[in-house]
Design brief:
mainly alpha, 72% helix, elongated
């Protein structure tokens, strides 16, 4: 039994039951350990939550930063970022659900450690929008609000997306990018 096995199982348990509804006994059961044995690997549910959130943000920062750093037009960059972000969420649905829905359960000290990485991630989106404004490609009156609106749209997808649904996650990403870049007006 590895720490990674425990974290993976905990993400699934948190997704199914929510952080507050899940117990250390539930996590231990998911990895076929006695509850006491689980404490040899982790000290608390808070530790697990913080580590999962950190793991999720590191994955996102790494993958989205590599796109953000490319020297391509802002519209192309935004399209690629949307595609990559949704693919990461779909490929890591349990971890994504913990990141998006359980972060509020962090205790104050861990929350203060979590926020800077979350802000770094949001800054990647703000930067591509600012680049687009600077290039004259985007009309964006409020970059922070627009970045949050885009992330809200993308984040909510995991609540209804099904891998066996009508569209693939990449088709959904392309539709979202077209909506963001072209709008609704004819």
């Amino acid at each position: 039994m590895t720490r990674e096995d425990i974290l993976e199982a905990a993400a699934q348990v948190f997704r199914q039951k929510g952080f507050h509804g899940a117990s250390m006994a539930d996590i231990a059961e998911a990895v076929n350990l006695q509850k006491a044995s689980l404490y040899h690997h982790v000290s608390s549910k808070q530790e697990i939550l913080f580590e999962l959130l950190d793991q999720a943000l590191q994955l996102l920062l790494e993958r989205i930063s590599s796109i953000s750093a490319q020297t391509i037009s802002a519209d192309r960059k935004l399209r690629l970022m949307v595609r990559e972000y949704l693919q990461i969420l779909a490929d890591n649905i349990d971890l994504a659900a913990v990141l998006l829905f359980e972060h509020r359960a962090l205790e104050r000290r861990q929350h203060a450690r979590h926020v800077p990485n979350r802000d770094k991630f949001e800054l990647l989106w703000r930067n591509v929008l600012a680049q687009g404004v600077e290039e004259g490609t985007f009309r964006c009156d409020d970059v922070p609000l627009t970045a949050r609106a885009i992330l809200g749209l993308l984040n909510w997808t995991i609540t209804w997306y099904r891998s066996d649904g009508e569209k693939t996650i990449q088709q959904i990403a392309d539709d979202y990018a077209s909506l963001l870049l072209n709008g609704l007006l004819k």
